[in-house]
Design goal:
The complex is a heterodimer of chains A (354) and B (303). Chain A contains 12 helices and 4 strands; from the N terminus they run ααββαααααββααααα. Chain A has 354 residues and is an all-alpha fold. In chain A, 40% of the residues are buried. The N terminus of chain A is likely disordered. A two-stranded antiparallel sheet of chain B has the order 1-2. In chain B, α6 crosses α9. Chain B starts with 6 loop residues before the first helix and ends with a helix. The N terminus of chain B is likely disordered. Classes of the chains: A mainly alpha (354), B mainly alpha (303). The interface between A and B is large, with 66 and 57 residues.
């Protein structure tokens, strides 16, 4: 019988004479079984990675490195098995396929695995494989990518700190992640001067958070900014438009608020659920928004050329392609494994609440 | 008849009826690695910005005071602040919070180290490679001190995996030729050099890069051997030396060539020294490694 008992519970410390503080609680002696939200999280993370991989390589709308002339309109396995037998090559599509397939399968496996040590190891390895491949060369988006990584750490911190049996390092992880998210949110945006500008000329301070909060103030003001509908009509921007335009920063700021509440001790039991939803919003929200906007543009373009009307299959393909493309940017697809794996790693060191 | 002794029961009750006590205050233990990392960061800043031979002809605090670009101010503040914080917390700080505090700082710096405007830019090594090197170095640091064996193996193996994977996934897209993985190119060229063959790469001082990446790959191999329980202070020491070679070979070889051509020049020396620390990423990698090693030691102490 392969029941894994939580042997990582802190042993009674000699200095405290085995006081009730350090005595193993009933929870510490329970088998380290993942609850259904954890299983669901792993399954979702794995399926997301596998779906993104399949969206990149398929005969209908595969788009992997299309701009470099690569033909991705085939099934993934056709890359490794040609008409003349197995093909052994190491090219970008092969690296991408191997990383995404291994990570996706490992995460799906995590949903069924019992020992938390194995789940944490597999999830973090999946993160390393995907992140090592996806983080591009330093560029303008690195701050936002860093913000996303810090947000995943914040989620892990909240998952641990608001748990019934708080692990030893949970509050420290939460505090460190909150500091990092705060820094990324308020760090000045990339403002490298163009060739015509004086490098020492004064520049206004702008950051992700100030842009978001400034946008909210503008929308709530008496003269809200005008936005254009897809059909070309102008109208006043609403709070929904503002929220839709700030789906990257808004979860970060709300997550910070949740983290502060958990640090103040008022986060149980709703905080992990709220934080999980915020992380999913940070992952899926901007991708959904990007894909919807691209679909609207495609529909608009098709409306002007009646002979090339957008069929429902084309619309679905356009949406899926842009959705998958957006999930690959800013490391979004790797955030769930990072949060879940790290939370699992910290949770292996449980301590009952005082 | 002998009356039964209630002493063990009383002791037991006394032990478990005691009110929960607050945990002991965390002992203050210095961290040499943190102090060295912080000192190297400050040294790098001073080598980069000084009125005598720096690339920036003003002191770092003068740059902070005078400049009007928020990003430049943020980058220099982060760099200098992390250095000072690492030294102060490395000497006096308690392990309870310093790992978390400095870990947050190192994470922020890892993702903001690209600012060419501030001159604190990492070159040649991308973020995953730097992160992998940092993890590997943390594992080796723990191995040399014979502490937290499980964490040491996990860190060095993860770092090795990340560094090798980052090299394998970095492709050179040449015009008219199929993209080639850096790992494949470097491996092929190293073999060619070892067997006395020629390499096709016509990059200047390519042999320095080959030697440096050779040291890194050997370090990764030692890191992965940790999973097979081949670890200890000797393995950690060799691994650390190899990683130092990875960072030091190209700038030191460059300086030796410059010294042969022009003789001693303080400006050239400062330039190469700051190249090791800032663009090659040694200071940042060491800070990350020291923080991770400190966190692993703190976790080991608590358990």
């Amino acid at each position: 019988m392969s029941r894994s008992w939580n042997l990582d519970a802190p042993a009674p410390r000699p200095g405290l004479g085995g006081s009730a503080w350090d005595a193993p609680s009933a929870d510490d002696l329970e088998p380290a079984r993942p609850g259904w939200p954890t299983r669901l999280g792993y399954a979702l993370a794995g399926l997301l990675v596998l779906c993104v991989m399949l969206a990149n390589f398929n005969p209908s709308f595969g788009f992997f490195q299309q701009q470099r002339g690569f033909d991705a309109r085939r099934w993934p396995w056709e890359l490794f098995y040609g008409p003349d037998g197995p093909v052994l090559r190491w090219l970008p599509p092969h690296a991408f396929l191997i990383a995404m397939t291994l990570s996706g399968l490992a995460l799906v496996l995590c949903a069924f695995l019992q020992p938390s040590r194995a789940r944490a190891g597999l999830a973090l390895t999946a993160f390393v494989l995907v992140a090592g491949m996806l983080i591009a060369a330093p560029g303008d988006y690195l701050i936002v990518t860093g913000g996303n990584v810090a947000f995943a750490l914040l989620t892990a911190g909240v998952l641990c700190a608001a748990a019934r049996t708080r692990p030893a390092g949970a509050l420290r992880l939460l505090g460190a992640a909150a500091l990092a998210v705060l820094a990324f949110a308020f760090l000045p945006a990339h403002d490298a001067p163009s060739s015509e500008q004086d490098p020492l000329a004064p520049r206004p301070y702008q950051s992700l958070a100030t842009q978001t909060l400034g946008g909210m103030v503008d929308v709530l003001s008496e003269n809200p900014p005008q936005i254009m509908d897809p059909d070309g009509h102008g109208r006043d921007a609403t709070l929904v438009d503002w929220a839709r335009g700030n789906l990257i920063t808004l979860p970060m700021l709300l997550g910070l608020l949740v983290a502060v509440l958990v640090l103040l001790g008022v986060g149980r039991p709703w905080a992990p659920l709220v934080m999980g939803l915020l992380l999913l919003t940070a992952i899926l929200g901007p991708a959904w928004d990007h894909a919807t906007r691209q679909l609207d543009e495609a529909r608009l373009a098709a409306a002007h050329t009646p002979e090339a009307a957008l069929s429902s299959a084309d619309a679905l393909a356009t949406f899926a392609r842009n959705f998958a493309e957006a999930l690959l940017t800013l490391l979004r697809v790797a955030l769930l494994p990072l949060a879940l794996g790290l939370a699992e790693l910290v949770r292996m060191r449980r301590r009952p609440l005082a | 008849m002998v009356a039964p002794s209630h002493a063990p029961v009383v002791e037991y009750r006394a032990m478990y009826s005691r009110a929960p006590q607050a945990p002991e205050a965390a002992p203050r233990r210095g961290s040499t690695a943190l102090v060295i990392a912080g000192s190297l960061m400050l040294l790098a800043a001073l080598l980069r910005a000084n009125p005598w031979f720096g690339a920036n002809t003003a002191w770092p605090w003068a740059i902070l005071w005078e400049n009007r670009s928020p990003l430049l101010t943020a980058n220099w503040s982060l760099w200098l602040g992390s250095g000072v914080l690492a030294i102060v917390l490395g000497i006096w700080g308690s392990r309870r919070w310093r790992g978390a505090l400095l870990g947050a700082t190192a994470l922020v710096m890892l993702f903001t180290c690209y600012s060419g405007l501030a001159g604190l830019m990492i070159e040649g090594s991308s973020v995953p490679l730097l992160a992998g090197t940092s993890l590997l170095m943390a594992g080796f640091l723990l191995q040399t001190t014979e502490r937290a064996h499980g964490a040491a193996s996990a860190l060095s193996a993860t770092g090795a995996l990340l560094a090798v994977w980052a090299l394998a996934c970095a492709f050179d897209y040449g015009a008219g030729v199929a993209p080639r993985s850096q790992l494949v190119v470097l491996g092929g060229d190293m073999l060619a050099r070892l067997t006395g063959g020629d390499v096709l790469m016509d990059r200047l001082n390519y042999d320095d890069d080959l030697a440096a990446y050779g040291a890194l790959l050997l370090g990764c191999l030692i890191g992965l051997l940790g999973l097979l329980r081949v670890r200890g202070s000797l393995a950690g020491g060799i691994g650390l030396a190899l990683l130092l070679l990875f960072f030091l070979i190209p700038p030191v070889a460059g300086y030796v060539r410059a010294f042969g051509a022009e003789g001693f020049d303080a400006t050239t020396l400062a330039k190469h020294a700051s190249e090791v620390l800032i663009p090659a990423g040694l200071a940042l990698a060491l800070l990350g490694a020291a923080v991770l090693a400190d966190l692993a030691c703190a976790a080991e102490e608590r358990s």
